[in-house]
Amino acid sequence: MSPKAPNLKSVQKLFKPKKKKRPSHKIGLPPGSLVFTGDKKQEEVFINLITYDENEFYEENIKLDQLDTHLKLQKKVIWIDIIGLHDVELLEKIGNHFGIHKLTLEDILSVDQRPKMELFEDYIFSTLKMIQCPSPESPIVDEQVSFVLRENVLLTFQEKKGDVFQFVRDRLQDPKRAIRQRGSDYLLYALLDAVIDNYFIVMENVGERIENLESQAMIDPDTDTLNSLYLQRREMMDLRRSVYPLREVIGSFGKYAEHKISPEVRPFIRDLYENTIQVIETMEVFRDMSSGVLDLYMNSLSNRMNNVMKVLTIISTIFIPLSFVAGVYGMNFDNMPELHWKYGYFFVIGGMGLAVIGMLFFFRWKKWL
Amino acid sequence: MSPKAPNLKSVQKLFKPKKKKRPSHKIGLPPGSLVFTGDKKQEEVFINLITYDENEFYEENIKLDQLDTHLKLQKKVIWIDIIGLHDVELLEKIGNHFGIHKLTLEDILSVDQRPKMELFEDYIFSTLKMIQCPSPESPIVDEQVSFVLRENVLLTFQEKKGDVFQFVRDRLQDPKRAIRQRGSDYLLYALLDAVIDNYFIVMENVGERIENLESQAMIDPDTDTLNSLYLQRREMMDLRRSVYPLREVIGSFGKYAEHKISPEVRPFIRDLYENTIQVIETMEVFRDMSSGVLDLYMNSLSNRMNNVMKVLTIISTIFIPLSFVAGVYGMNFDNMPELHWKYGYFFVIGGMGLAVIGMLFFFRWKKWL
Amino acid sequence: MSPKAPNLKSVQKLFKPKKKKRPSHKIGLPPGSLVFTGDKKQEEVFINLITYDENEFYEENIKLDQLDTHLKLQKKVIWIDIIGLHDVELLEKIGNHFGIHKLTLEDILSVDQRPKMELFEDYIFSTLKMIQCPSPESPIVDEQVSFVLRENVLLTFQEKKGDVFQFVRDRLQDPKRAIRQRGSDYLLYALLDAVIDNYFIVMENVGERIENLESQAMIDPDTDTLNSLYLQRREMMDLRRSVYPLREVIGSFGKYAEHKISPEVRPFIRDLYENTIQVIETMEVFRDMSSGVLDLYMNSLSNRMNNVMKVLTIISTIFIPLSFVAGVYGMNFDNMPELHWKYGYFFVIGGMGLAVIGMLFFFRWKKWL
Amino acid sequence: MSPKAPNLKSVQKLFKPKKKKRPSHKIGLPPGSLVFTGDKKQEEVFINLITYDENEFYEENIKLDQLDTHLKLQKKVIWIDIIGLHDVELLEKIGNHFGIHKLTLEDILSVDQRPKMELFEDYIFSTLKMIQCPSPESPIVDEQVSFVLRENVLLTFQEKKGDVFQFVRDRLQDPKRAIRQRGSDYLLYALLDAVIDNYFIVMENVGERIENLESQAMIDPDTDTLNSLYLQRREMMDLRRSVYPLREVIGSFGKYAEHKISPEVRPFIRDLYENTIQVIETMEVFRDMSSGVLDLYMNSLSNRMNNVMKVLTIISTIFIPLSFVAGVYGMNFDNMPELHWKYGYFFVIGGMGLAVIGMLFFFRWKKWL
Amino acid sequence: MSPKAPNLKSVQKLFKPKKKKRPSHKIGLPPGSLVFTGDKKQEEVFINLITYDENEFYEENIKLDQLDTHLKLQKKVIWIDIIGLHDVELLEKIGNHFGIHKLTLEDILSVDQRPKMELFEDYIFSTLKMIQCPSPESPIVDEQVSFVLRENVLLTFQEKKGDVFQFVRDRLQDPKRAIRQRGSDYLLYALLDAVIDNYFIVMENVGERIENLESQAMIDPDTDTLNSLYLQRREMMDLRRSVYPLREVIGSFGKYAEHKISPEVRPFIRDLYENTIQVIETMEVFRDMSSGVLDLYMNSLSNRMNNVMKVLTIISTIFIPLSFVAGVYGMNFDNMPELHWKYGYFFVIGGMGLAVIGMLFFFRWKKWL
């Protein structure tokens, strides 16, 4: 009956706390300073190397000094997947090796970077969020993933193991797949496509959460519903910050495609762009749905209040007048003739009964019952 | 009197549940994978072929292998209408036959595709939603329909039997009609026009539904009203996702018209574009109306609450003071002179009567009665 | 006291019901089908012909077959005003006579056409709504009026008798007026100007209605206020659909003016454009005012509720404790010393009086009284 | 206690009634008709003439026929300030004298003209609102002021005496001022700058009013607060209609500057443009603040309601159960043993006291007290 | 229990009062008048001079007349930092020395200038707000800082001592830093970057404040919460006025970079631009969060109200009927058989007990308890 402190614990399990935008310890450093702004999520940094052409496929976890040997093999495509960003020195070496601009390295390390795609003289750089939410009950986990495409070499940078690229790796192993025929630009496309595809699963799960909140708001709203809804909306604000810039990112990709990407890959980028639009529009629909749920909740609440008020009114309206009558005949005046009638009491009780019946009809007529 | 669980059943008959955006089982497949993402709505796939020129008209349900024979006849226009999308292999064959890009075929099969129109080297591709809602009481049924226009051949792909093209077919059979004089581009226009025309009927019925909700909210609002309104708004969100991209779709059509469409068809496309704008503006009006209905409903509700409160207040204000007076004369003090007056009781009763009359005038003056 | 069913009758006299967007009976017809989509508002179709140059002015109601005779006279300007659209055949003949495109004729006949201006090879076509609302108490009546300007001939198409062009006709009869010096393009401008000018009167009256609602919402709000407000907003939605496209319409007029309109008329078109902007901005102001009135109304309502609650609270707070005291001394315990005090009763009554006075001061201090 | 009719009188002193947009008596007149649409605000029309160059400065109130004499003097700059617009004939003569287009004259006379700047062949025309609001307590007074710049002659048209140009006139009298070195274009700039500068004072005062409303809404909200707020918002709607077009007006000025304005004046126009943007942004902030004040007010109101309800609940919760107990021992059953206990009465009274104390602690714990 | 006057004092410590937009004492002055519009924040004006190239670094507080000596040394970069703006004469001398336009000087002195960047013939001028908010509990302090970049000289103008440039100064002292290799354009970039970087700290602290308000609104909302929220929103309005124009400012910087900035500095400007976007997007998120907090607060409040109402209803519903029964048996009719039953009293008391238990179950079933 008390205004319950909302059960925040149970809700927070689902919605992870929002991360700080940009850590203060970076302030004051010159631009291009390489500082990893995220949390160290694993001990070691892995370098996973995949090289392939139509005929061969080779995958190995290598050390940095082995890199040269592999680059000399001159395969059609070389994909170097760096997993773990906390070893800044290693990243700097890789950056030097491939002629990556200091600012690009800084972007790779700043894990709260806004998604973007930039064209440098020698390479295309892109960074975006890889979001995972395997079920409606699990929290949304995001991770920054960066891409550097330089001729036949594609570098990817992830924060930790576990990604959405497994399907692409599987396809690469099958020599009959079209991907084996194509170049590093198609590989970049395929990985971006895997990231965006995964957004659809996240959207599905977020959608299911909103629908759950919706039924809750319709059938059985309580304080937690609104708090959940509020946290849901904050989660979606975060999500929007990952999703909305994608339009621009993939749009730029399409633009650069004119110069840097082989013509046969271009229709795929257009397709990717449309998927992105679809993700963004779904976000918009979710936004509208959320505010609809809020209306529903408010209505349920005020409806309940209404019902409580009606009960109070009905009880008061019936019994207060009756109590008055009882009070009247409880008065101690010497001369109250009714008190001495033989059936006075029964008349009064009967009259009261009739009044109750009358009022019940009245309430029924008013549709209060 | 209890906060009724809203009667969802009755509402859901009208508003069909929203479909998933993109089925998870497509995730991980390479781009261009041909997977039908909808529900199989009929057993067989029909291929309906219509060929015509000024002089002749021919219609038949054919098998795939009969196609070549008909294509050789070199009629002015060949319309191949594929009804049913679940036979992916068949579609692949047709795609190969007419040189349709894998991504186009994927779009045809992904029945939650965003409406679009694309210009490929050899053909124009368009996909949009064919929406049907024959009466205000019937649910909105949508179906994806795709068009591929390649020279004198127009391919259309529908999910199931039953479409809005019957009027066009009827006109085609009449040799005096202008449509028989014109090419496949005019046929594409005519079919798009039929689809858009049908949106007007849907709009009419949606409008009627909103007007019903409106009268309900004004005259006799209950919990269901808001839930219906909420579902109505969700339905309109879905509808908007089908309708809004049309501006762009038909706009692109107009743009491509410069190159690919014969000059005499262009004014018709402009006309079609204006119809589309009209549909979109109607959607906007509906959106405003919906939020107006919400205001009305909320007002009705708070008005009722107000009335309930007034009843409570009137009853309490009249009887609580009277009860107090009765209570006073029910006290058992030895020395209460009034009790022994001969007409004490009648004075008190009379006084109470006057007080009631006074208060009724007061309430009347306050306009509470 | 009951939640009154709002007095819809009285409100609906002012706000006419919204017309259907596009009649279903047109669906399925080929584009360019000539079907009059409005209501037949008069029996006959009138063709009013006015010809004039600097020296002569001639006006007559003619029959279609007399038209040629008049056209041969080669006056500087010929204005043919067709009043009544239901005689489709007649319109078709006129269309053929002046080389009007089928789609243009269709637009003329579809009386729910969105306002537009189109440049055809031989003529300029424009259609818009002529709105009349002579007083704040009268409903808004709209009528579609279409213009076809072809060289020195201006065709106008109206649904029924009674228009806003009378002032222009009067000016035409006066040979000293500038309009007699100028061509058919200036006549078109003058008629459009008359239509837009009339919007200002409508705006004035709509503004007055909103101001009435406003005083009502401030001084004496009831359920009807909100319903009226709601209907007012719907009326404005309708109005906006007539008004907003005008920006584009007159804007196009300005654009076409570069080629088709004589240079001396151009500044007038710019002036007309600015008037249109002014009408649109007034609509925007009305929109804001409407939502302001809603806030006012809601505030008045909740203020009233507040006052009702205060009355209830004051009455209860005063009498419930007093009744309790009376109840205490109505108890029948054998040993209640106060009952036997000589002035017990008077002490209690006096104490109650003091308590009432104290509470009244308390409420005054709280500003509840 | 009654729902007070808001004290409109006191509020209306501050907020002047909104003027009609466009007087109906102009409807039906041909374009370019010269009708003064404002109220005649003074008897006479004054023509104030100022001529100056680096060396000389001359100011005089002249008659129209003296104009030629002064124009012949061929000073560097001639500023003719016409104060009072109701003498249409005089204005027409001036118009003819300087070759001003009929439509320009019409704009000068229509005192509800939307602010604008237009480039004619021979002159630049601009009209805007000169707004004055010397203190937060005084109403906002606006007046239309028009400018015609034609070579070295600047004509200004005001509705009545009293303007914001006095500072400019003072500077003109000082031969050392830069303004004496510069041409008529700089004079136009200086006057426009004076008008815009004055907007800042108005903004300051409007800002102070909003802040007053804000403290009122926080500390001591009553019905008048909302009505004032509502009127404040309407005032700002009016103000916006004067202010928003300024961006376009001064923007056009900058554009025309390329051709018609001497290069040294151009940076000043850019500066003026930025001031205009600042005024517009301040309006936007005020808009947000207004809606914030509304929230504050609504909160204060519902907070009060809450407190009223709490009082009612506390009183009822304490006394209703106690009254029940008293009622029980007021029953007249023959066999009620407690009544005959010696200290029954005192036990009951004591028990009641304890209950009250308990409930007070309960309420304290609930933070209701 | 009374509607507490909100504790404004405690809140105002955190949120400083908004400054006036533009001081009225500037009105009437000619454009380019040099008047310092801020508050004098320190006694003296300091001129801090830093000169450096790859090899040497020199810093000194100088007097104006020493300036020439230093300028003659022809170091690679000269940074003159003027701290304190109230000595208008001094500023005018500096302005003359470096050929700064009067309007630029006016902008430097008008401390409520909108952030901007302008390209003059000889120099780039920029002005923006340097905002400091070292902790979530401290108020936001802003200060206008202006930059004039003219060849190898960078002038900065601050209102008072204490800035965010210390990190840059430290880096300048280290000869190995890249900044010592680069020109004055890089120095300008580095200072702008320091300003923008500091916005991130402010954002972090504002974010924390909003989150505090959020927990307060969820857990323990009172009147102060809304007032704080309201002041928070006003603070953010102010902040937005500093932050939003930055997009344009840094955008212009990027545009001018094409001509005036050395190519190696350009990628840094792009990076700076993206940081600016991120700040702006964070502001947007905060805006959404604020309105979310408002919803939460309103919900908490109405939830409390609901609970209060429930208590009232439960107490009334239980005791009013019971009191009625007690009242009935307190009536003084001669013939009331129940009164004379031996266990009548106990039956009645027992019946009342059962009724209470029944009602408690009823409330439990209704989930009111």
Your description of this structure?
- Chains A, B, C, D, E: It comes from Algoriphagus halophilus.
- 5 copies of one chain form a homopentamer.
- The first copy, chain A, is 56% helix and 13% strand.
- Chain A is built from 11 helices and 7 strands.
- In chain A, helix 7 runs antiparallel to helix 8.
- The radius of gyration of chain A is 34 Å and the shape is rod-shaped.
- The N terminus of chain A is likely disordered.
- Chains C and D meet through helix 5, helix 7 and helix 9 of C and helix 4, helix 8, helix 9 and helix 10 of D.
List keywords for this structure.
homopentamer; alpha+beta; Beta Polymerase, domain 2; Methane Monooxygenase Hydroxylase, Chain G, domain 1; 2 domains; seven-stranded mixed sheet; about 55% helix; rod-shaped; disordered N terminus
